[in-house]
Amino acid sequence: MEKIFSFIHRHRYDIFYVFLLFGILCLIAYILPQEETKSILDTIESKTFDIRQKIISKDKKANKDIVIVTIDDPSYEYLIETYGDWPVPRHVYAELLHYIQEQKPKFVAFDLLFIKSLKRIPQSDEKLIEAFKKYPNTYTAINFDDYSFEIRKPPLLNKKITTDINIESKSIVPYEYSNCRPIMSEIIEATGNIGHINTPKADDGLIRQIPIFINYPDYNEKDYSKIKIRNYLYMTVKMAIDYLNKYENANINEIKVDSKNNFIIGDRIIPLTKNAEAILNWYGESGIRKGNTFTYVSMWEVIKSLRAKKSGQPQILKDDFFKDKIVYIGTSVFALSDIKTVPTSKYMPGVEIHATLLNNILENNVIHKASLPYNAFLSLILSVLTVLIVFKVRSVYVSLTLLTMLIFCYIYYSTFVMAKYNLWIWIIIPLIISLIVFVISFIIKYLITSRNFEYTYKLATTDGLTELYNHRFFQEQIRIQIRNAEKTKGNFSLILIDIDFFKKFNDKYGHQAGDAVLKHVARTLKSSVRTEDFVCRYGGEEMTIILKNAKRETGVKIAQNICSTIASRKYELSPELEVNITISLGVATYPENGTTPTDLIEYADKCLYKAKENGRNQVGFLD
Fold first, then answer.
1. Taking the CB of residue 572, how many other CB atoms lie within 10 A of it?
2. For the chain, how far is it from start to end, CA to CA, in angstroms?
3. pLDDT confidence of residue 580
4. Would you list the DSSP string of 185-242?
5. 29 Cβ contact list (under 8 Å, min separation 6)
6. For helices 12-31 and 2-10, angle between their N-to-C axes, nearest 10 degrees
7. How many angstroms separate the CA atoms of 41 and 485, rounded?
8. 600 Cβ contact list (under 8 Å, min separation 6)
9. What is the DSSP string of 344-392?
10. CA torsion angle 29 30 31 33 (round to 10)
11. Phi, psi of 445 (to 5 degrees)
12. H or E element, residue 286
């Protein structure tokens, strides 16, 4: 047990550092997994994603072959004035589709929900249905929700618009909806090119990712119990698959999600979140706001062009404007509630979000999150560099400057890999860990410095043999005590001690025995005084004690007690030999026996000499 306590005492600082670091790491490990903490960190991390996207989007160029025909505010007003109502008759879209398809576009997609039949104009719906039948490269949308059965009876959807996805991953949990806004059943019968356009928002209201597929059940028509859960692809994904098959000879026969949560279509790998969402790589401020994204054309321009063509008049748009283009048709009117907020744009029409996903798939640049081991490795590297900065640099200001530069370098690196490799690496957690490590390292460095200073100070002020304060310390301390006593009008006492016949003892028993006696006397002296008193080795066999705030009577009494204690104990030199040790002492008190170090030491030395003259083993006094 004694060895254990001795080990603990010798390594008490190291043990303290270990427990301090362990405690802080336990605190971090406890705090970070908490749901509230994770939510806050995820929100902040998402904001860093937004900032990085804004920075890198300045150098991106959207695919100019993707064209958006938008029902903007001027078009909305033009359509109402021309057709007298909203929504406009379906044959208008049929005519629009015929006009665009005559120019041989690659694909046309309606970001519009053709929900109910409009009976006010005969044959209007039929014309649109016939147009869908005629053009197999045309797509339209459906939207899912969770409205109650009392509000809307969930429609039974044709299986032709579903997609069988081979899901190998066990961690993917797609959004599952219980209801659907039904579009005209005749359109579903006319084409299978129908996909969902659900775009869930994050907690902060932004759209950063899109569900590649969602789930919706087949219902039993009698009691509406769920029969089977089916997968419904995002409209743009359906179109992207057909694009890859037709224009890149991808020959995609199977669509699957592998065990690593990757959505695989041909040679395109789209990393998915747990809700089967793809994180989009944005192209900047929305084109509707004159940004640098996709080509926008107002629907009123298209309709006037098709009317001009029919009448032989000059057109606003060229005859081949849509040739080899991928055309999206959607709204950008605030009143129609299809304006979203995304990382790079406060106002972006939903139709442009679809175009962004298509662009990402075709260029294979969907954002993927770095793995946990990779993020952990970066955090470790950042922490190691932080520790090196703290321990290798002496100046605090330089350390802070270097840490700031390191943080900026890391942020630059995170932005670079997102721009270059479409990789989203953590910023917030590594920086938090780095700052915590910085603080811990500074605390440990301070403690180590204090320990080293204490050790160095001890070496400079302590006698190596007796572990008493040395002569230099004694001289410094007696001057300090005099200054303090002068200020407070107080006093202190000085005891000068000499071991009797020490030279003869050395000659008889050897220097090792003499050293042992010095240690024995030193231990006895330290145990005989208060903790605030100073026991010093004056030189050779002489030792001194400075008794703080002690009058002469107190000093003499303590000196006599020490003398008696030393004389009453036998000291064992070996198992066969015990010896008696005595000491002679002299006492001086400030200010009655002197007001300078020299005066006090001389007075105590004279008293000590008297003790020797009178037979030793006593406290000496001057007559």
1. 12
2. 53
3. 87
4. HHHHHH-S-EEE------TTS---EEESEEEEEEE-TTT--EEEEEEEEBHHHHHHHH
5. none
6. 70
7. 60
8. 478, 494, 588, 590, 593, 594
9. TEEEEEHHHHHHHHHHHHHHT--BEEPPHHHHHHHHHHHHHHHHHHHHH
10. 80
11. -60, -40
12. none
Which residues contact residue 347 at a Cβ distance below 8 angstroms, ignoring those fewer than 6 apart? 286, 288, 289, 339, 340, 341
C-alpha separations of 310 from 139, 435, 513 in Å = 26, 69, 124
Residue carrying structure tokens 């029919």: 310
**Rounded distance between C-alpha atoms, residue 308 and residue 212, angstroms:** 40
Q: What is the C-alpha to C-alpha distance for residues 315 and 310, in angstroms, rounded to an integer? A: 10
- Distances from the Cα of 594 to the Cα of 491, 497, 590, 598, angstroms: 11, 18, 6, 8
- Quick check: 378 and 430 in contact, CB under 8 A? yes
Structure tokens at 467: 């572990």
Question: Active site residue: 168, 541, 578, 602, which one?
Answer: 541
In the residue annotation, 541 being an active-site residue is answered as: yes
Q: What are phi and psi of 201, to 5 degrees?
A: -95, 155
Model confidence at 30, in pLDDT bands (50, 70, 90)? low
pLDDT in tens, 357-396: 999 999 999 999 999 899 989 988 998 899 888 888 888 8
Q: State which amino acid sits at residue 59.
A: D
pTM: 0.73
Q: CB–CB of 219/230 below 8 Å?
A: no
Q: Are 392 and 341 in contact (CB under 8 A)?
A: no
Sign, CA torsion 51/52/57/58:
positive
Give percent of the chain with pLDDT exceeding 90: 61
Place of tokens 């903790």: 531
Instruction: Give the Cβ contact number of residue 126 at 10 Å.
Output: 14
What's the pLDDT tens digit per position in 84-142? 878 888 999 999 999 999 999 999 999 999 987 766 677 888 999 999 999 999 999 99
Name the helix (H) or strand (E) containing 339: strand 339-342
Task: Report in angstroms the alpha-carbon separations of 456 from 6, 13, 50, 392, 393.
Answer: 21, 15, 53, 20, 21
Radius of gyration for the chain, computed over Cα atoms and rounded to the nearest angstrom: 45
CA separation for the pair 164, 150 (Å, rounded): 30
Q: Of 583, 555, 567, which is closest to residue 491 (Cα–Cα)?
A: 555
DSSP secondary structure of 495-563: EEEEETTHHHHHHHH-HHHHHHHHHHHHHHHHHTS-TTSEEEEEETTEEEEEETT--HHHHHHHHHHHH
